[in-house]
Amino acid sequence: MTRISLATACATALLLSAAPSHAATIFVSNEKDNTVTVIDSETMKTIKTIKTARRPRGIVLGPDFKELFVAAGDGDIIDVIDTKTLEVTRTLDSGPDPELMAVDPAGKIIYIANEDDSLVTIMDIESGDVLAEVPVGVEPEGMAVSPDSKYTVATSESTSMAHVIDNATNKLIANVLVDSRPREAKFSPDGKELWVSSEVGGTIAVIDPKTWKVTKKITFEVPGVRPEQLQPVGMDFARDGKIVFVPLGPSNRVAVIDAATKEVLEYILVGQRPWHGELGPDGKKFYVANGLTNDVTVIDVDSLKPEKSVPVGRLPWGVAIMPGKPGE
Amino acid sequence: MHPFSWSVLGSKRGVGSIGRVTAMALALAMLTGSATAEPKDPAAATEAAPAAPKPAAAPKPAAEPKDPAIQNMRVVYLGKKYSEPLPLSYAEKEITDKGIQGARLMLKEANQAGNFVGHSFELVEEIEPEDGDVVAKAKAALANGDRFFIADLEPADLLAVADLPEAKDALIMNIRSSATALRQEQCRSNVFHIIPDYAMRADALAQYLIWKKWPRWFVIRRDTPEDRDYLAQVKRSAARFGGKVVDEKLYDLPPGARNLDSGYQQVQSQIPMETEGAPDHDVVWAINSDDDFGDYLMYRTSSPRPVVGTQGLQATAWDKSYTESGGMHFQNAIPRLAKRTPVERDYTAWLGFRALADAAMKSDSVAPKTVKDYLLSDEFKLEAFKGQALSFRTWDHQMRQPIILGGGTRVPVSTSPQEGFLHPKYLTDTLGFDEPETKCKFK
């Protein structure tokens, strides 16, 4: 009996290791449940629900995928989850009300938006030491580090600006006015453009990092949907930077934008109030968290069609994805 | 030590110049790359920009800022200490600084934003005693070149200020009065209404009651001018949305002292008598602007019915229970400044100043005409914790905004407009006077 099951286990292990590495692990922060749902991308089944500090929102992996950082706004800390054991192994003292974070490409430094204190906290990941605090506008939220690590951008929701920090000096070098309530900032993979989504303004500002000037504003329009419901929040580049997925909150849609022409190619109907999503490691699927329907919709990147939705916790907020399975 | 302590200085009358100059110094510091540098203490800031003591009476001339690159906007908060009804609960503290605390918060935030883009802001506080002359104060400010006002004024005073010939090109933010006439027959082109009027409030509640299938309303009211205005709007809402005022009772027991020892025993027997005999109804709609009996209705009416209106479930621009769309920022910020929870007028004062500051920065001008044009343009989309952009109705200058339904509860009940009520342009224009029904004719 024991021998048989052991043999089966070995066979399974062999099969798994032999399989092409399409497997990925999807992490979803559930704002209302104080948990992170862990999903196996092959079965789309929940493999674990991890308890976090209160109100987990921003969720981001280090570049080596060993640690997952979850900003717990009401807990005033960042939970660090070991992606092998799926346990919270340590916490970072982020300062009050952390919302979104960005990790530098080297995986050494984490940039945290402290919403309630109008600060960006710059922290050494390994030691948890605060390297600097940079005062920015009111209610900072979106954070992005440029691919060359030279700049970090914070958006301030109440002040309606993108603040650019020079990473060499930790000083502000530019402040760009954008439309109301900027939520997220994202650099294009080649670093030649900075995109900033304005949730209440209903636009995306495309900014030239050479001049830090807005070069283009992208707007949205869906027949039969009230304009104030078209609220861009998250932004994720796909197809090697050729398209951008933009969840549009209360319109229950994800817009797909041609990154070159800045035209909207498609509006994909998903669950209710999608804010953030993430591209799978093989670039074939986009996963978006639907806040009000408590599920995640899988979108096929080639066909731009929604394939299925799977349940997660309550008020799912953000998504992070690592290649492979936990412990592999 | 707080990086923006200077703006608190700037909020006090007579030391505005300290606030502004320090703000400019900070702005310069930011531009030259010392963003993390903080002023060590207010004294150090004063040292850099010594301010001579000023006579208390006349406001100082609106001098051009020393750095021509920085555009300064001076906002005058014009208020009067009207006698206000005391809270019905003796345990509830009387609040004497409603409104101004919201303006002070916005001063800090506006400078925080302005620093980054070459704008600075000043707040001049002119709050008169009840027998004071706000018109004289307004005249003095206008003569001094001031054109941006936050009006914490009742209708008669507001109109007296707005109708001053020299105020023609001023921008006056009404943060206090919900009187519908100010948006209708008595509208003025230099007045912008931040606070919702009674029509918007009645519509916000009515939509929810219709959504709940509670269309029969029993009105109990007093008879102040505010109460009569609200009553007319409740009837208008009933006609618009398919509700019905089944009966209307004037509550005429004298208010008397607030809660007394054992006083609840009398109230407990009075209220059922006052509410019995009404035709079948789904809710009791209290109209009691003086706040001297409405709360007595809850749990005491003859039939077990919820209470809505000026007490019970209320339609309001801000509520202490509201936390959505970043609202916790305001809920946390006001207590830090005022040592109390925010009230609606703090929010409308904050919002009125915010509209001016946003328009100044986005239009990159402090010229009254440019700021006004921007406020009324499609470009103006203000973020203010309501989950959608706020803007002004061009036909009566009322700010369109979602309305919170809360007030008596520890968590908000809902936000109107409700789904299912349709509008070709803005769903929020289902609340209050829409363009086809406006009686406003700007001169």
Set down the secondary structure blueprint.
The complex is a heterodimer of chains A (about 325) and B (about 450).
Chain A: H1 2-18, E1 24-30, E2 35-40, E3 45-51, E4 56-61, E5 67-72, E6 77-82, E7 87-92, E8 98-103, E9 109-114, E10 119-124, E11 130-135, E12 140-145, E13 151-156, E14 161-166, E15 171-177, E16 182-187, E17 194-198, E18 203-208, E19 213-219, E20 236-238, E21 243-247, E22 253-258, E23 264-269, E24 274-279, E25 285-290, E26 295-300, E27 306-311, E28 316-323
Antiparallel strand pairs in A: 1-2, 1-28, 2-3, 4-5, 5-6, 6-7, 8-9, 9-10, 10-11, 12-13, 13-14, 14-15, 16-17, 17-18, 18-19, 20-21, 21-22, 22-23, 24-25, 25-26, 26-27
Chain B: H1 6-10, H2 16-31, H3 42-48, E1 71-80, H4 100-117, E2 119-128, H5 134-143, E3 148-152, H6 155-162, E4 171-174, E5 191-193, H7 198-211, E6 216-221, H8 225-241, E7 244-250, H9 263-275, E8 283-287, H10 294-297, E9 307-309, E10 313-316, H11 328-338, H12 344-363, H13 368-375, E11 391-392, E12 399-400, E13 403-407, E14 414-416
Parallel strand pairs in B: 1-2, 1-3, 3-4, 4-5, 6-7, 6-8, 8-9
Antiparallel strand pairs in B: 10-13, 11-12, 13-14
Helix pairs in contact in B: 2-4, 4-11, 4-12, 7-8, 12-13
